[in-house]
Amino acid sequence: MVKINRFSAINPGALGLIALYLVTRASNQVLFKLVATSSTSYSDILFKPIFYLSCMLFLLQAIIWVKVLRSVSLAVAYPFTALIFIFILFSGNFFFGEPIDVGHLIGAAIIIYGALVIATDHENG
User: Higher model confidence: residue 9 or residue 26?
Assistant: First the structure.
């Protein structure tokens, strides 16, 4: 059997939901970082509206993930969650000026390659 597309088992709608999940998860982490850097104590967090926004976004990402799992097996979908590290790497740099060095970029490339290998390996076995 000839494989035309290594992602043939994943429909475009599922890939879109996975991408949306990654964006909401990264956004959630950026909001939590904003809460953490703008709060002086744990009780102060409760008075930050952005904290509640990030909690709602957390719920939204859980709902999106359930929708992903309805259309794709866990073994196929979950490796893509490793890509969150790449989203966070660049979000941290963009929003907070956190540095990105060569080691980060090499690690990101390894994560991307690993996620693709794991997510597509199910077709071989």
Answer: 26
Q: In the chain, what are the domain boundaries?
A: 12-121
Helix, strand, coil % over all residues of the chain, rounded to 5: 80, 0, 20
* pLDDT tens-place string over residues 5-17: 454 557 888 889 9
Distances (CA, A) of 60 to 17, 34, 41, 63: 12, 19, 26, 5
Structure tokens at 109: 């490339």
Residue type at 67?
K
CB 25, CB 57: distance < 8 Å: no
Cα–Cα distance list, 74 to 18, 26, 80, 107 (Å): 12, 20, 10, 24
pLDDT at 43: 87
**How many CB atoms lie under 10 A from the CB of residue 41?**
7
HSE toward the beta carbon, residue 42, CA cutoff 13 A = 0
